[in-house]
Amino acid sequence: METYDYVKSVSTAAAASKSAMAGASTKTKNAVLARIAELLRTESERIIAANTLDLENADANGVPKPMLDRLKLDKKRIDGIADSLGELIMLEDPIGSGTRTTRPNGLVIEHIRVPLGVVAIIYEARPNVTVDAAALCIKTGNACVLRGGKEAIATNRVLTELMRRALCDNGLPENAVALIDNTTRESSTALMKMRGLVDLLVPRGGAGLIRSVVDNATVPVIETGAGNCHIYIDKTADHDIGVKVALNAKMSRPSVCNAIETMLVHESEAAEFLPKFTAALGDKTLEIRGCERTCAILGCKVAEESDWATEYDDYILAVKVVSGIDEAIAHINRYNTGHSESIITGNMANAERFRNEIDAAAVYVNASTRFTDGGEFGFGAELGISTQKLHARGPMGLDALTTGKYLVTGNGQVR
Amino acid sequence: METYDYVKSVSTAAAASKSAMAGASTKTKNAVLARIAELLRTESERIIAANTLDLENADANGVPKPMLDRLKLDKKRIDGIADSLGELIMLEDPIGSGTRTTRPNGLVIEHIRVPLGVVAIIYEARPNVTVDAAALCIKTGNACVLRGGKEAIATNRVLTELMRRALCDNGLPENAVALIDNTTRESSTALMKMRGLVDLLVPRGGAGLIRSVVDNATVPVIETGAGNCHIYIDKTADHDIGVKVALNAKMSRPSVCNAIETMLVHESEAAEFLPKFTAALGDKTLEIRGCERTCAILGCKVAEESDWATEYDDYILAVKVVSGIDEAIAHINRYNTGHSESIITGNMANAERFRNEIDAAAVYVNASTRFTDGGEFGFGAELGISTQKLHARGPMGLDALTTGKYLVTGNGQVR
Predict the structure, then answer these.
(1) Average pLDDT, stretch A39-57?
(2) Which of A39, A395, B182, B321 falls between 20 and 30 A from A375, CA-CA?
């Protein structure tokens, strides 16, 4: 079968399960999640065997070490995934919640949350996403179509088989969790074109995937994960807090989207703050690319214009000395991707201006941008971090997988 | 100047006013709306003079009569627009509302409503939309770019001049209401491509405009107005209610998107109900295109497959006899555009199935689909009726013009 036809057949099968999923009770959906957790634990040896195969293939194909680590599942990680399903069970089911008003003509208008329908996710070699994403969809009564990376395909086959078994065991259609068992670029592009079958596509990946989606997608998309994040050290900043937060925001996990890429420092603080910051790095390696004034203080590599727009995802930090809050806000609003931005300041008027004028999903005062995360925000799991303004902005939890429906009841009203 | 560059310069000027608009207080924004209402009344003669020019040009160009009627502004209609601004002033300002939680680590996370930024609207020859759309944007702290139809350009010039004066009179930037003073197809297409400048595009128009947006737009879009709506007369329907509601839903204003295009009738009711329905038409003309069983009863024109998918927007109704609720739901979910669907029934179990299983923005029991409207739902004005699931579904009021922002305040928290 042609790739396009294959993707269409999988999407059509998922769409056929929409009605049963939308009608499932919270109790049934939670029973599916509990059953998945149980199967993950009892079948962990099979999962690990498939994952070992994936790891061997990936290693033989020269996949870099950090990616191998993200690909790996061991008993402890599988238990962690099963535990997070337990947390998801505890969260309130948004489906069916809503408001009810009676109009002067007697019409009763209810506005309730309903599932989107079919949610497709394109992602890379992290098999935990396979379970996290499917579980969020199950909890919200959505069907899902999963297109994971080729490195994880053997693991993903076992994981989806177990999730489909859990659906069947609870009287729900197994096609509500559907795996695209074809990891070519064509299958990814085909999925972007399933207009009428896919209600939402969430691409989780790098700039290349996002560009491909913008160019090709005809289905509704929520863009996630582009994070050119900043920290601004204001004139009145507590330097100890500034050093601690900036170090955490850059160094704790540079490959993630909520890590900072540029640090802006007020000109009155730079001469004292910048050496203090580099001293605090200790034996850790960080490449600094600075403006001329930064380089005059630190003797670092000179930043080019393109550095201000780059998401390094690496141990590299662009640094710029600015004249104050106006320049800081203008710089950030020019170069940021609408993800997470932080100000370190003791001046509450400046904090307020930063909160109001910075255009981003999350704006921090005296705290690390690394907190932009569904778990840290208290949403349980997350499907990704939206950097767009429509529908969902910031960490996407259960609510982002729902839409509204007006139910109007009358006794013959006409207009 | 090239059309694209012109549209870009207008959009850039509108975007430059975002920060001032986002920071405007509810009091100031309401003062602008009150001033617009005042100017509409005091300058009504100038508006009518410009509108007369538009009407003369349109008439000379052979514009059909119903469109001339939609284009026309007289003193009474201008007063109506001014009155609706008064109602908008009374509505609660969503900007700044939200929730606040404190996390175990002491971080305070606020989630507040903020403006989208720049909202663009492409619409046809209805000058009231110029004021309604701009007023909704002003109330929600958004800048707007208006691309109205060529037939209304003289009227729109005067209306936007008055609205810009009202902004200036209250210390806000006049470019927050921007008119694209170029009504070529190129200006419309250019506006669809203002990625990074336009945060939301709302096309209000027919299938041709929607297709052009799907093909060309690179900015976020909310599709509005496609309405292939149905009514289903169930086995236990009260025939008097069925006739009254079906007549209203089809005949009261067939050109609007919430009018019905197809009526489905249970096979046990058809022989009695259908003649009763046609008799109730009296001297009104309605072309019926029926399935074979309908034609056997009414002697009407035979419907083709394409009729089930057609939004006539005219005095034409497709009619089909169905075997029951299953066939009715399957037919509607196959052909509808996700707008408004109604069941007439005395069977509460069937009503519940219809409410749950029909995939549409608004689902009615024993009432006319014509109520799907921001005013009728109690939202004050509306920017259009969304038929998509992301962000806004159904009538779009003030909330649809906002997005969320997380404001996180700490005292040095790191992760």
Answers:
(1) 97
(2) A39
Residues of B in contact with A394 (CB under 8 A): 404, 406
* Residues in chain B closer than 8 A to A403 (CB atoms): 389-390, 393
Residue B378 lies in a domain: no
Over residues A226-283, the pLDDT tens digits come to: 899 999 999 999 999 999 999 999 999 998 899 999 999 999 999 999 999 999 999 9
Residue B367 contacts A where some CB pair is shorter than 8 Å: yes
Q: Among the listed ranges B3-17, B140-154, B214-228, which one has the minimum average pLDDT value?
A: B214-228
Look at residue A412 and tell me whether its pLDDT is greater than 80.
yes
Tell me, yes or no, whether B341 lies in a domain. Answer: yes
Judge if B71 and B148 occupy the same domain: yes
Q: Are residues A208 and A306 in the same domain?
A: no
Does residue B206 register a pLDDT over 80? no
Residue of B200, B355, B393 with shortest CB distance to A407: B355
Task: Say yes or no: A21 contacts chain B, CB-CB below 8 A.
Answer: no
B357 conformational bin, left if phi > 0, alpha if psi -120 to 50, beta if neither: alpha
What CATH number has the domain bearing residue B54?
Answer: 3.40.605.10
The count of structural domains within chain A is 2
Write out pLDDT tens, residues B168-182: 999 999 999 999 999
B220 and B103 in a common domain: yes
Q: A415 vs B22: CB contact, 8 Å cut-off?
A: no
- CB–CB contact A367 B220 (8 Å): no
Is residue B3 within 8 Å of B186, Cβ to Cβ?
Answer: yes
Two tokens at B398? 């003030």
Compare CB distances from A415 to B200, B376, B407 and report the shortest one's residue.
Answer: B376
| A100 part of contact set with chain B, CB < 8 Å | no
Flag whether pLDDT at B66 surpasses 90.
no
Give yes or no for A388 touching B (CB within 8 A): yes
Shared-domain flag, residues A51 and A148: yes
ipTM over 0.90 threshold: yes
C-alpha to C-alpha distance for B334 and B308, rounded to whole angstroms:
9
3-state secondary structure A148-173: CCHHHHHHHHHHHHHHHHHHHHCCCC
B242 and B316 in a single domain? The answer is: yes
Beta-carbon contacts of A331 under 8 Å, excluding residues fewer than 6 positions away, are A230, A264, A308, A320, A322
**CATH for A239:** 3.40.309.10
Separation CA B289–CA B250 (nearest Å): 14
In a domain, A408, yes or no: no
Alpha carbon of A294: minimum distance to chain B alpha carbons (Å)? 24
Q: Could you tell me the pLDDT band of residue A365, with boundaries at 50, 70 and 90?
A: very high
CB of B347 within 8 Å of a chain A CB? The answer is no
> Which residue among A199, A247, A390 places its CB closest to the CB of B391?
A390
Distance of CA B173 to the CA centre of its chain: 27
Same domain, A140 and A240: no
Tracing tokens 């939309």 back to the chain, one arrives at B129
Please report whether residue B405 resides in a domain: yes
Distance from CA of A48 to the nearest CA of B (A): 30
3-state secondary structure of A216: helix
Instruction: Decide if B252 and A415 are in contact by the 8 Å CB cutoff.
Output: yes
Query: Is A368's Cβ below 8 Å from some Cβ in B?
Result: yes
Give A155→chain B minimum CA distance, Å: 30
Q: Is the confidence at residue B207, as pLDDT, over 80?
A: no
Q: What percent of chain A has pLDDT over 70?
A: 100
Query: Residue B359: which of A7, A242, A15, A194 has the closest Cα?
Result: A15
Please tell me the distance from the alpha carbon of residue B121 to that of residue B133, in angstroms, as a whole number.
8
Give dist(CA B367, CA A407) in Å, integer.
11
Chain A residues whose CB is inside 8 A of the B360 CB are 405
| Mean pLDDT over each residue of chain A, to the nearest integer | 95
Q: What average pLDDT does chain B have?
A: 95
Please tell me whether the overall predicted TM-score, pTM, comes out greater than 0.95 for this model: no
Looking at the structure, tell me whether residues A282 and A161 fall in a common domain.
no
Do B388 and B352 belong together in one domain? no
Query: Could you say which of A391, A404, A414 has the minimum Cβ distance to residue B245?
Result: A414
Q: Which domain holds residue B346?
A: 229-371
Across the interface, whether the CB atoms of B220 and A390 are under 8 A apart is answered: yes
